[in-house]
Amino acid sequence: MGKAKEYSNGEVTIVWEAEKCIHSAICVKNSPKVFQPKDRPWVKIDAASTNEIVGTVKKCPSGALSYYMNNEDDHTSESLETKVEVLENGPLLVYGTIKVTDKDGNEETKNRTTAFCRCGASQNKPYCDGAHVKVDFRG
Question: Is 109 contained in some domain?
Answer without folding.
Answer: yes
